[in-house]
Amino acid sequence: MKNTLFISSVIALLAIAPLAQAQMTGRLYDPMPPDNSAYLRVLDSAPGKPVSVLVDGKVHVKSLAARTVSDYLVLPSGKHQIQVQIAGKSQGTTEVDLVEKNAYTVIFPNAKNPAWTFTDRTSTNKLKSMLAVYNVAPAMGAVDVKTADGKTSVFKALETGKPAILEVNPIKVELAVFKSGDATASVEAKLDMERGSAYSLFLLPTADGIEVLSTQNHRERYTGQ
Length: 225
Fold this sequence. Notes:
- The protein is mainly beta.
- The protein has one domain (4-216).
- Helix content is 0%, strand content 51%.
- Residues 1-15 and 19-24 have low confidence and may be disordered.
């Protein structure tokens, strides 16, 4: 698999859970995904129009806004072809080999360059929050992530394509991204972290620097269909 990178720590699987209670379906809870399920989310980092996300040639997400990460899709383990399209035209395709119970993130940079594929391993610590940072802005080079006042270092010298993850206390925090060695922040992000949840920061390229996308991880609702 091209550009597959394994995160050395873990992402809380609880944090990619959907709403526990089913809505008006005649049952209190949705069924659990099958034991052989894996979880995969998709981000098209190119600015522009919404994309459709196809799994093995079939539309799984009809309209995903540009630079918006999908929920984790519930998929059978094994090999799958993942593609993003705009108006039926491919903007990128990659093949993934999913291991059951594992979680994955696929980031499409544009129609010309191969996708980044990351494996997000799981944890069950319900007392902490998890924070992952994905640096997929090649022109920016290595970055430092600190608190917005610059006093506390969170991640240091994070290189392109080498994501990092940290288990933290569930707090409200403002983070800033610095080009390594610089004293002036490039972008900032606010997080209101909850216990037992996981959050992601995606550092995406722009014409004059980077943009940060912050999100709480979620799993799509599974209905058994």
